[in-house]
Amino acid sequence: MRDSTTVSMGRPPVSGVTQTRVLAPDMQEVLSVHHWNERLFSFRITRPKSLRFRSGEFLMIGLPDENGKPIMRAYSIASPNWADHLEFYSIKVPGGPLTSRLQHIEPGDGVIIRPKPVGSLVLDALLPGKRLFLFATGTGVAPFASLVQDPETYEAFDQIILTHTTRTASALDYSQRLMEQIAADPDLQEFANGKLLYYPTSTREMTANFGRITARIASGQLFADLAIAPLEAATDRVMICGSIGLNRDLKSALTTRGFEEGSNNEPRTFVLEKAFVG
Ligand SMILES: Cc1cc2nc3c(=O)[nH]c(=O)nc-3n(C[C@H](O)[C@H](O)[C@H](O)COP(=O)(O)OP(=O)(O)OC[C@H]3O[C@@H](n4cnc5c(N)ncnc54)[C@H](O)[C@@H]3O)c2cc1C
Ligand SMILES: NC(=O)c1ccc[n+]([C@@H]2O[C@H](COP(=O)([O-])OP(=O)(O)OC[C@H]3O[C@@H](n4cnc5c(N)ncnc54)[C@H](OP(=O)(O)O)[C@@H]3O)[C@@H](O)[C@H]2O)c1
Asked: Which has the closest alpha carbon to 196: 148, 126, 262, 249?
């Protein structure tokens, strides 16, 4: 495990002279990298001064291949829109064109970014409501990491319920650390205190809450464990970010309860986005 937290502005000194690395104009500089386990890492890069985004949106980031051609992939911004850096939470796909390279970035390196944020996991795509449920699996928690650090989310809803489901116990570390960071941040606590509920579950290694979130919604266990009322389309709003299967199954569970899918143009009671393709 590696945790690089210092900012390096360039390559090691040569003959006592510090050389500053010059990044290409479409690149931002890596500030820090944290490896959570052998399959997951997160990293921070500088934020282009002109970049504006809504918490929950994604953009394209990448690295050049061996011929200098950019390999670009969609990535949710995990940091809130008020932060002066951008954070991303990433899978390491064995042999994956981008992530087999991206997992080796270090402070001072450059990452290509196309500063055109888009996406449907935004407050604007939901009608006003009382509770906001955020259902994530795997790296699908990234857009919700942004939303739960955004005061606007707490201004819009009385209660925010973040669920995160992963195969293994260690894959929950990112969201667990996020909750600790929010609890330790006095500015965010002004908004989040008493309003944010967190419900981690795992499916292939035993943790306190074992099982798929879909099963825990169907059985009512989720609501019993948190001592909250079941899902209700009249008052609740939902965002979903996971695999195609998770998104399909949750969408079906919601539509049978009277929820309707929304978009930026037509806000409704739930929205979803793929955490990855395939
Ligand atoms: C809207 C959107 C937002 C995304 N946001 C993120 C993000 O915040 N963090 C992130 O790590 N990825 C995210 N992805 C996936 C990302 O775009 C890439 O697929 C991923 O970085 C792997 O790139 P690759 O070139 O190494 O492999 P690819 O060729 O892109 O993927 C190879 C295979 O790996 C699996 N895979 C890819 N990404 C994931 C993943 N995140 N979790 C589990 N399995 C995966 C799939 O089976 C895929 O077919 C997002 C995708 C979309 C469509
Ligand atoms: N995570 C790992 O340790 C690991 C290791 C090697 C390879 N991979 C590969 O990486 C890819 C993605 O793995 P991932 O673990 O990041 O994502 P994933 O397969 O989408 O699983 C993430 C979580 O979502 C749950 N889930 C999946 N489909 C669901 C559905 N329809 N309804 C409710 N819950 C659902 C999974 O439960 P279930 O466990 O019940 O499916 C798991 O807890 C896969 O192709 C996998 O083969 C993953």
From this structure: 148
Q: State which fold the 3-118 domain adopts.
A: Elongation Factor Tu (Ef-tu); domain 3 (2.40.30)
Which pLDDT band, with edges at 50, 70 and 90, does 20 fall under? Answer: low
The residue whose C-alpha atom lies closest to atom 30 belonging to ligand 2 is: 246
Domain ranges of the chain: 3-118, 123-274
Ligand 2 pocket test, pick from 212, 241, 277 with the greatest ligand atom count within 8 Å of Cβ, gives 212
CA of 12 to the centre of ligand 1 (A): 33
| Residues 140-195: tens digit of each pLDDT | 999 999 999 999 999 999 999 999 999 999 999 999 999 999 999 999 999 999 99
Rounded to whole angstroms, how far apart are CA atoms 6 and 164?
29
Q: Which of 167, 214, 246 to mutate to test the pocket of ligand 2 (most atoms within 8 A of CB)?
A: 167
From the CA of 167, how far away is ligand 2's center (Å)?
A: 6
pTM over 0.90: yes
What end-to-end distance do the CA atoms of the chain give, in Å? 28
Q: Whose CA is nearest to atom 13 of ligand 2?
A: 138
Say which amino acid occupies 233: A
Percent of the chain scoring above 90 in pLDDT: 91
CATH top class, domain 123-274? alpha beta
pLDDT in tens, 185-237: 999 999 999 999 999 999 999 999 999 999 999 999 999 999 999 999 999 99
User: Ligand 2, atom 23: nearest CA belongs to which residue?
Assistant: 166
